[in-house]
């Protein structure tokens, strides 16, 4: 059946379809070719590997694209896979225009004399074998005649916006190294040796190194003159700054939620404050469990922003791990309660934004005070 003969589904909402399809994350490429002495290029995300034996790719171009006609005529094209800093190229080639290549570095492929962009993450040169039509597009099946890759990270495209991929393995290592540092598995001021962490955490050396660099930017790790990584002692100033940063994010999330929070979240927050009460009142309730509920409360709130970036920034400001080590298990009940969090949960339920932000501030002051006492009791640094 020819897909062009298919009738549109009556009442089918194209905007909705575009939004739903946008949930499929992809990389970003620029398809280049040349024809009749002219260079052509268009940004394309509808690209996929098709077969290993023989090596084949497919890519889909709208028939209204001038690059489409040039690829058809030339019978050869290059898929230039963009790196994460090449959003400008994606935008430049995503528009119509005769001078797309001006100021862009490129070489000309041995095979077919097609422009190959410089400094991209990878290039794959293909010869068109078939070009069937699908709706408004042509699907170009291409046999691979050349393929090269450089090091770097890909530019991603998701729900109409460019982004960066975060490797799950790297993120996992970062979280483990952070936990290691905060739990003082290497004592405060001590040296963090990469090969020890690699063995202890079962991680890749590069990931451990990158995690330590990230923790350096967060102020939790420092580098000595010889370049060694060391656990930075946490002082009152550092701890105050982190709590204030977190409060700012929470207040921002609350203020931006004029339409309110969903019922499920409000119930979760209230339940968490009840569970905190249970732990505080029970003789064998531990500070670790209490702080775990605190974390869950705050994280649930920030997660409601819907922004994974904001949520990750928020997590990076947490130093809760050090307090379980810094306090012995007896005295925390007098210093840390959940009254402000209950007030916050209630204010969110009744939609009182000012009262909710007030509770965030009051809670933050209490947390800062708690942290300062722990730090002072350890001689000014933990
Ligand atoms: C991120 C992104 C992805 C795109 N993906 C495709 C695609 O897969 N196929 C396509 O035909 N157009 C795609 N486009 C749109 C074309 O790049 C755009 O229509 C361009 O102006 C065509 O230029 P041309 O007529 O010079 O070939 C994409 C644009 C952007 C910004």
From TrEMBL:
Q: Which residues are in the Flavin reductase like domain?
A: 21-164
Residue intervals of the GntR C-terminal domain: 241-366
Question: Is the keyword Manganese in the record?
Answer: no
- What InterPro entries does its record include? Flavin_Rdtase-like_dom, GntR_C, NADH-dep_flavin_reductase, Split_barrel_FMN-bd, TF_FadR/GntR_C
Instruction: Recite the UniProt keywords alphabetically.
Output: DNA-binding, Oxidoreductase, Transcription, Transcription regulation
Highest taxon of the lineage: Bacteria
Q: What PANTHER family does this protein map onto?
A: FLAVIN REDUCTASE, FLAVIN-DEPENDENT MONOOXYGENASE, REDUCTASE SUBUNIT HSAB
Family listed: Belongs to the non-flavoprotein flavin reductase family.
- Quote the protein name from its UniProt record: Flavin reductase
Q: Which organism is it from?
A: Arthrobacter koreensis
């Amino acid at each position: 059946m020819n897909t062009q003969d298919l009738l549109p589904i009556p009442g089918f909402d194209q905007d909705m379809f575009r939004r739903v399809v946008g949930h499929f994350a992809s990389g970003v490429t620029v398809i280049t070719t040349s024809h009749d002495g002219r260079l052509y290029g268009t940004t394309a995300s509808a690209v996929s590997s098709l077969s290993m034996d023989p090596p084949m790719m497919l890519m889909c171009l709208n028939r209204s694209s001038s690059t489409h006609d040039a690829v058809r005529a030339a019978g050869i094209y290059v898929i230039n896979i963009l790196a994460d800093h090449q959003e400008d190229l994606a935008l430049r080639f995503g528009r119509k225009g005769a001078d797309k290549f001006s100021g862009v570095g490129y070489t000309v492929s041995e095979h077919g004399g097609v422009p190959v962009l410089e400094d991209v993450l990878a290039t794959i040169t293909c010869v068109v074998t078939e070009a069937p039509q699908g709706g408004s597009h042509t699907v170009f099946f291409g046999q691979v005649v050349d393929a090269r890759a450089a090091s770097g990270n890909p530019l991603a495209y998701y729900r109409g916006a460019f982004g960066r991929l975060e490797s799950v393995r790297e993120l996992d290592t970062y979280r483990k190294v952070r936990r290691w540092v905060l739990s003082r598995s290497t004592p405060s001021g001590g040296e963090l040796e990469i090969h020890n962490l690699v063995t202890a955490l079962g991680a890749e050396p590069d990931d451990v190194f990158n995690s330590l660099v990230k923790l350096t930017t967060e102020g939790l790790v420092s580098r000595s003159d010889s370049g060694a990584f060391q656990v930075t002692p946490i002082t009152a100033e550092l701890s105050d700054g982190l709590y204030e940063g977190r409060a700012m994010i929470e207040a921002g999330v609350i203020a931006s939620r004029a339409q309110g929070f969903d019922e499920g979240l409000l119930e979760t927050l209230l339940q968490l404050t009840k569970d905190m009460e249970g732990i505080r009142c029970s003789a064998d309730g531990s500070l670790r469990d209490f702080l775990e509920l605190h974390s869950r409360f705050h994280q649930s709130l920030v997660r409601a922003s819907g922004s994974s970036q904001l949520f990750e920034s928020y997590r990076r400001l947490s130093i809760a791990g050090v307090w379980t080590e810094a306090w012995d298990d007896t005295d925390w009940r007098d210093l840390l309660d959940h009254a402000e969090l209950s007030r916050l949960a209630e204010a969110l339920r009744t939609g009182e934004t000012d009262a909710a932000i007030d509770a965030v501030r009051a809670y933050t002051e209490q947390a800062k005070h708690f942290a300062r006492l722990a730090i002072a009791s350890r001689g000014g640094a933990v």
